[in-house]
């Protein structure tokens, strides 16, 4: 398993409730790809969301986001962390 | 206080030790601006680093990173999180 940080753009105006619903949509199907979404952070003003996950591959994360209706714009494998 | 996520590019090849030293350089002077650096994640292959912090303003975070020798390329106020 590896750690990934992905980013979604174009989410300006997102509310706390919408973020929770989007996260729940991911969590609901994450087991099908062996992904665990751990955290999400949103900047509603500039419309950016970051998600931290553990997953077997970046593609597994991207597939879950895609199927949940919010494809990611960028993803990074982050093997180093503090 | 508010939560911020910033990003540094151009850090390809960074090692775990270098990440720790860079983080320590921030932590050493963070109190001068009321900033607390909580986490950092690095993708050494694509040279991207993300830092999560609590701070009074984005500028306070940027000033610490700048003075510590590694200015950030992007920063987002992330008031929403899961």
Automatic annotation (TrEMBL), chains A, B:
Name of one Pfam family that matches: SCO4226-like
UniProt protein name: SCO4226 family nickel-binding protein
UniProt lineage: Bacteria, Bacillati, Actinomycetota, Actinomycetes, Streptosporangiales
């Amino acid at each position: 398993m590896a750690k990934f940080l992905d980013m979604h753009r174009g989410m300006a105006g997102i509310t706390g409730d919408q973020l929770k619903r989007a996260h729940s949509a991911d969590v609901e199907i994450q087991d099908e790809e062996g992904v665990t979404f751990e955290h999400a952070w949103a900047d509603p003003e500039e419309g950016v969301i970051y998600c931290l996950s553990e997953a077997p591959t970046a593609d597994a994360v991207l597939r879950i986001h895609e199927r949940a209706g919010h494809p990611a714009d960028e993803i990074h494998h982050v093997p180093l962390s503090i």
